[in-house]
Task: structure prediction
Amino acid sequence: MTMVSRRKRPGFFEKLLGLTPHPHSAPTPDARVTPDGVRCVQCGVCGYNCPVGIPVRDYARQGKVVDAADCVQCGQCIEACPRGTLRWATPRPPQLETSPELEAVLAAYPALAPGGGPR
Result:
């Protein structure tokens, strides 16, 4: 008789202590909850489901990214939103301001360009 291995499902205490990743948790450490302020109907379900009590609805009303320091990036607000107005977004790196002088230097020294220049 052979034993069939079963994958252990997370139990009550694993879920309670947060030892299992939430299916909607942040894809990257710097991802932030980003609302679509136009589609948001201000129902408040997102903030109600936030385990740390962040007023996600207020961020959505203002069209701002949820950049609260106490956000644990669990994604429960995204999952709970009935209209699907919340999503994960990664902040873009700042764009370099170019000038003719900078363009001349980068043309002369391509290794200084972002990404190391042409390959």
Summary: The domain at 20-89 is CATH 3.30.70.20 (Alpha-Beta Plaits). Residues 65 and 81 are 15 Å apart (CA to CA). DSSP finds five helices and two strands in the chain.
